[in-house]
């Protein structure tokens, strides 16, 4: 961050020492991706396309993508795409933070969860928007249809990121973008960085949409459970409304994301089949990794 604030990016040149830990690599990558999101008040916007920083970002992305592909499983052979993707997602049975928070979490557990979720949710859906210029008219129209709901159907007060910000404030937490980035675990940074990486790279556009499909297909049930936990613990109506909003909306969005978005993309570009599944797997795997980390701390 010193280099970003000063504008002197020479210390980040190729001969600089690499990050010494996964956490260092991911926070560096998150900071570089943030230049393409809302940026930082004390960083010159012109650094977004600084060639030294872009080179560093590409190196960190390369290492991150390689680690993901090395962990990824074999994906189903192409057949009935929508049925196969729904089955792939449904057959994934990982640990559930939402279920634990509904029944056993304390107020502090829930507040910690909200702080973690703020890293993504205060810019909810923005990663997906990057894919739109890279898509055909049919796929583009389907993505915009889904995103129209995510962005409040034209009403800034109904924008999902705004709803979550109001919920944070009601819960006594900061709604400033990135306010809690220094305290979140590695798994939160990895999930957010994966979405930025997929959205920013045209060659990974299908993986970005696969991530979207898995996210929408697995969001409704957990949202209902988190809303139940919030109600049990006496949280306010604003944050509960954010989650209840997703119970019905995401049940509809999963069909749109799998059939109209990913289904149309793979119909037009069959070579993108595996990348769609790769993105879906990343979404599911990232949720699992976060759940295992937090449940090991909260319920050892």
List keywords for this structure.
2 domains; Heme Oxygenase, Chain A; 300 residues; 0% strand; 14 helices
Offer a concise description of the structure:
The chain has 300 residues and is mostly helical. It is 67% helix and 0% strand.
| Total domain modules | 2
Low-confidence sequence ranges = none
The quaternary organization reads as single chain
Sheet with most strands:
none
Beta-strand residue fraction: under 5%
Say which CATH homologous superfamily of the largest domain is assigned.
Heme oxygenase-like
- CATH hierarchy: architecture of the largest domain: Up-down Bundle
Tally the helices: what do you get?
14
Evaluate the radius of gyration: 19 Å
CATH class of the largest domain: Mainly Alpha
What does it look like?
The chain has 14 helices and no strands. With 300 residues, the chain is an all-alpha fold. It folds into 2 domains: 69 residues, no CATH class; 221 residues, Heme oxygenase-like (Heme Oxygenase, Chain A), CATH 1.20.910.10. The chain starts with a helix and ends with a helix.
Note the topology.
Layout: H1 2-6, H2 22-34, H3 51-71, H4 81-90, H5 97-103, H6 107-121, H7 126-129, H8 137-150, H9 160-170, H10 186-200, H11 205-217, H12 220-233, H13 237-268, H14 273-298
Helix pairs in contact: 2-3, 2-10, 4-13, 4-14, 5-12, 6-9, 6-10, 8-13, 9-13, 10-11, 10-14, 11-13, 11-14, 12-13
């Amino acid at each position: 961050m010193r280099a970003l604030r000063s504008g002197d990016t020479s210390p980040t040149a190729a001969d600089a020492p690499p990050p010494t830990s996964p956490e260092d690599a991911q926070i560096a990558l998150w900071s570089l991706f943030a230049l393409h999101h809302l940026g930082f008040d004390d960083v010159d916007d012109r650094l977004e396309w600084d060639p030294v920083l872009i080179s560093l970002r590409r190196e960190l992305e390369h290492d991150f993508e390689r680690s993901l592909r090395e962990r990824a499983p074999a994906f189903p052979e192409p057949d009935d795409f929508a049925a196969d993707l729904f089955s792939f997602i449904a057959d994934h049975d990982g640990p559930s933070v939402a279920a634990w928070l509904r029944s056993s979490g304390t107020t502090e557990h829930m507040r910690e969860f909200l702080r973690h979720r703020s890293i993504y949710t205060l810019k909810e859906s923005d990663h997906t928007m990057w894919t739109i210029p890279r898509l055909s008219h049919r796929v583009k129209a389907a993505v915009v249809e889904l995103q129209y709901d995510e962005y409040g159907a034209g009403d800034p007060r109904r924008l999902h990121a705004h709803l979550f910000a109001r919920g944070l404030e009601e819960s006594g937490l900061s709604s400033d973008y990135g306010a809690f980035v220094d305290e979140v675990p590695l798994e939160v940074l990895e999930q957010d960085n994966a979405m930025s990486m997929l959205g920013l790279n045209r060659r990974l556009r299908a993986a970005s949409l696969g991530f979207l499909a898995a996210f929408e297909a697995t969001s409704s049930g957990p949202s209902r459970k988190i809303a139940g936990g919030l109600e049990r613990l006496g949280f306010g109506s604003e944050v509960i409304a954010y989650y209840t909003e997703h119970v019905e909306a995401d049940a509809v969005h999963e069909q749109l994301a799998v059939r109209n978005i990913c289904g149309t993309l793979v119909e037009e570009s069959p070579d993108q089949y595996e990348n769609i599944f790769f993105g879906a797997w990343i979404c599911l795997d990232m949720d699992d990794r976060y759940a295992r980390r937090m449940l090991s701390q909260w319920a050892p």
